[in-house]
Design a protein that fits this description.
The protein is of the alpha/beta class. It folds into 2 domains: 135 residues, Rossmann fold (3-Layer(aba) Sandwich), CATH 3.40.50; 183 residues, 3-Layer(aba) Sandwich (Rossmann fold). Helices cover 36% and strands 13% of the residues. It has 14 helices and 12 strands. A 7-stranded parallel sheet has the order 8-7-6-9-10-11-12, sandwiched between helices. It has a 5-stranded parallel sheet with strand order 2-1-3-4-5. The protein is globular. The protein starts with 5 loop residues before the first strand and ends with a helix. Bound molecules: glyoxylic acid.
Length: 338
């Protein structure tokens, strides 16, 4: 039986999440996962009430121009720099993301990259697989940097940054952080973290993890000048977004030994990766997988579905999407769509 709303899901999702959606709305889910050009996005969104999209889909004013039907775009990510939220708001379209459900998994992965980069895990494994391990255990090979007991720096101290900080206690690491605004004292105490100026953080951190949202102010928050302040023994981890680090400048610093190593999950212009980074043995690189545990990706998909259904007036949260980015659009939805 056809339902009152129809929705587009831009990629295959967990079957149980699609089945949940299908209890309330007609679902058109893509069976392949690829980046779709704006013209195709426009067409896909033209006659649906809602859409679940991922970071590969840029939903901007051009894509929604003239669209009188769309009421909600639910992002399958906590970061939403792929959505032009002001444009969606003026068009009376709700925008949602998937915060919180990925905090712990993403924090685990930041530590994975820090430890792997500090201890040359990727390059040592490549060397082993290439059949170059011929002399038994060699005492001076693969000497890395210690992580335990060092000072951890965190740039960007939202909920993921805080989850990273809490793990530092087990490694006996003092934590310094910089954030636009200082955290309330009770959270600082819980995270055992101390606020410092950004330059101070860069100078004092033995290892630095970036967890900033991407926006115009944070573009190249770490460039040549910032890298020059860091310790040559430091490991830099970026699990935030491509564009926060100037990847070309980072590659130069890593090649010249001005920075010991980097663990990178995100890249400027991904899926392209700066070719100079690909050449480096002291960079551990992964394809944007920080939140990719099966449980967490399922929870993200479920939250995106709950957001979408609630925005369309279905399910237990009807009318109140749990993670709404533009509450000011709630009123506009009715004006713009009637
Ligand atoms: C992934 O990068 C996310 O923002 O969820």
């Amino acid at each position: 039986m056809s339902k009152s709303h129809n929705v587009w899901v831009s990629r295959p999702l967990f079957p149980e999440v699609l089945a949940h959606l299908a209890q309330y709305v007609d679902v058109r889910a893509e069976t392949d996962e690829r980046q779709r050009p704006p013209a195709e996005l426009r067409e896909k969104l033209a006659d649906v009430d809602g859409a679940i999209v991922g970071l590969g889909e840029r939903i901007d004013a051009g894509v929604i121009a003239g669209n009188r039907k769309l009421r909600v775009v639910a992002n399958l990510a906590v970061g939403y720099n792929n959505l032009d939220v002001p444009a969606l708001t003026s068009a009376g379209i709700l925008a949602t993301n998937t915060p919180d459900v990925l905090n712990e998994t993403t924090a685990d992965y930041a530590w994975t990259l820090l430890l792997a980069a500090a201890r040359h895990v990727s390059s040592a494994e490549r060397w082993l697989r290439a059949g170059q391990w011929r002399e038994g255990m060699r005492f001076h090979d693969w000497l890395g940097m210690d992580v335990h007991g060092k000072t951890l720096g965190i740039l960007g101290m939202g909920r993921i940054g805080q989850a990273i900080a809490r793990r530092a206690y087990g490694f006996g690491m003092p934590v310094l952080y910089h954030n636009r605004s200082r955290l309330p004292e009770n959270i600082e105490r819980d995270c055992r973290a101390r606020w410092v100026e950004k330059a101070d953080l860069l100078r004092r951190a033995d290892h630095l993890i970036l967890v900033l949202p991407y926006n115009a102010q944070n573009h190249h928050a770490i460039g040549a000048a910032e890298l020059a302040l860091m310790k040559p023994t430091a490991v830099l981890v970026n699990i935030a977004r491509g564009g926060i680090v100037d990847d070309a400048a980072l590659a130069v610093a890593l090649r010249e030994g001005r920075l010991a190593a980097a663990g990178l999950d995100v890249f400027e212009g991904e899926p392209s990766v700066h070719p100079a980074l690909l050449e480096l043995d002291n960079a551990v690189l992964s394809p944007h997988i920080a939140s990719a545990s099966a449980d967490t990706r399922r929870a993200m998909a479920q939250l995106a579905a709950d957001n979408l259904l609630a925005a369309l007036g279905h399910g237990p949260d009807a009318g109140h999407p749990p993670s709404l980015l533009n509450p000011e659009a709630l009123g506009a939805v009715h004006e713009a769509k009637t």
